[in-house]
Write a structure and sequence with these properties.
The longest helix is centred in the N-terminal third of the chain and has 21 residues. By secondary structure, the chain is of the alpha+beta class. It contains eleven helices and 17 strands. The protein folds into two domains: about 140 residues, GAF domain (Beta-Lactamase); about 240 residues, Phosphatase 2c, domain 1 (4-Layer Sandwich), CATH 3.60.40. The protein has a six-stranded antiparallel beta sheet with strand order 3-2-1-6-5-4, sandwiched between helices. A six-stranded antiparallel beta sheet has the order 7-8-17-16-13-14. It has a five-stranded antiparallel beta sheet with strand order 9-10-11-12-15, with helices on one face. The protein is globular and about 70 Å long. Helices cover about 35% and strands about 25% of the residues.
Length: about 400
């Protein structure tokens, strides 16, 4: 079996000139280096319901695998290694992670499973995940693998703006979900981890389709521009508000803008006409925050209203759930709303079951879809944040 330097050298050799469709072939060439018959890359689809094999020339043929109800799916959902065996071979299913962002799984087919396989295959998975992330922008193979059907233009615009769905580290965990993923219009989120400060925002533009996604796109870019210009939270609100009012005078965007000091737990926030965030502590709802504290973006300067910044102090282990109205307003044919109570019950039950933040968000959007029989009437976006500061200098309690 090859040593780690050989694996790294192989990746670097491939990565310099690889196209996205070359990633599957690179995985195949990894196989003999780790004493495997085959190594196959699966990427999770946008719905996070299927693991779809990344195709490539001379790569093994595979069918998609359901996330729910399968061991490969469990490897993805719980980010743990699982093993399956049949008469012909042994299969190891290894999470494919970009840092803490779940991309899919890696399948390795071997004659026998050794401790060396269990040590080396996560390294191979990490290297291939890096290859997926660095080469995906140079072609469409990765994107097409993840799509079960064509994506509407409004959704294409927003997905290309969003940060990764998950970040875990330096005392915080951030995980988000967005539905309907192929036809989302006005909902979006953004975050940035700069030093000890987590900047976080959720947006919901009025309307649907391309018009709504265009307004939300402006809001996200104006938010990033103001943040990167060093403005404080109130000034960021003013800047985004001004851009929307000038460029789309009949439009508005509800939003929550937050700054969390991850060293102290100090939270500063503006709720711009948006549903109040929920604060959970020890698996229970403590309160929902004061909302609104400002007019929706696009209305503030127009009506002469100054935003109010409120401050809260979190306790270690606290979770904050931000969500758009499409989450609680999803309803059945009998007009039974998903509602805040059901939302709180779902989140607290998931946390009690020790599900990770990304898996909680994945299951939440599926529960919302099932409540509305698979057809959302509005976009539904949710972001879960957990603050868990290190208790010992130089350590990080979150993986």
């Amino acid at each position: 079996m090859a040593d780690l330097l050989q694996l790294l050298d192989h990746l670097l050799t491939v990565s310099h000139h690889a196209r996205p469709e070359d990633i599957a072939a690179a995985a195949t060439r990894f196989a003999p280096l780790v004493d495997a018959r085959e190594v196959v890359v699966y990427l999770v689809d946008y719905d996070q319901r299927q693991l779809r094999p990344l195709p490539g020339p001379d790569t093994p043929s595979r069918a998609p695998i359901a996330v729910d109800g399968t061991l490969p799916g469990r490897a993805f959902a719980l980010t743990e290694i699982y093993e399956t065996t049949n008469e012909q071979a042994h299969h190891l299913w290894v999470p494919l992670l970009d840092g803490t962002e779940r991309l899919g799984v890696l399948e390795a087919v071997t004659d026998a499973i050794s401790d060396q396989h269990r040590r080396d295959l996560p390294v191979v998975a990490s290297l291939l995940a890096e290859l997926v992330m660095t080469r995906r922008a140079y072609g469409d193979a990765v994107e097409l693998t993840r799509r079960q059907r064509p994506m509407q233009l409004a959704a294409e615009v927003l997905w290309n703006l969003l940060p990764p769905l998950t970040f875990i580290g330096h005392g915080i965990a951030v995980s988000a979900a967005l539905e309907p993923c192929y036809d989302v219009g006005g909902d979006a989120f953004d975050y940035a981890v700069n030093g000890d400060i987590l900047h976080l925002a959720i947006f919901d533009a009025a309307g649907h389709g391309l018009d709504a996604s265009t307004i939300t796109s402006l809001a996200i870019n104006a938010y990033r521009n103001a943040r990167r210009s060093g403005l404080d939270l109130a000034a960021i609100y003013d800047s985004v508000d001004d851009w929307i009012a000038r460029k789309h005078p009949q439009a508005f965007v509800t939003a929550v803008l937050c700054e969390l000091d991850t060293a102290t737990g100090a939270l500063r926030r503006i709720s711009a006409g948006h549903p109040a965030e929920l604060l959970l502590r020890e698996g229970k709802l403590v309160t929902d925050f004061v909302a609104p504290t400002a007019l929706p973006l696009g209305f503030g300067r127009r009506f002469g209203r100054v935003p109010t910044v409120t401050e809260e102090t979190l306790q270690p282990g606290d979770q904050i759930l931000l969500y758009s109205d499409g989450v609680i307003e999803a309803r059945t044919h009998d007009n039974e709303f998903f509602g805040t109570a059901r939302l709180v019950e779902f989140i607290t039950r998931a946390l009690a079951g020790r599900l990770s933040a990304p898996e909680t968000m994945r299951r939440l959007v599926h529960a919302i879809l099932e409540h509305q029989h698979g057809q959302l009437q509005d976009d539904a976006t949710a972001v879960l944040v957990e603050w868990q500061p290190a208790t010992t200098p130089g350590t990080d309690p979150l993986p």
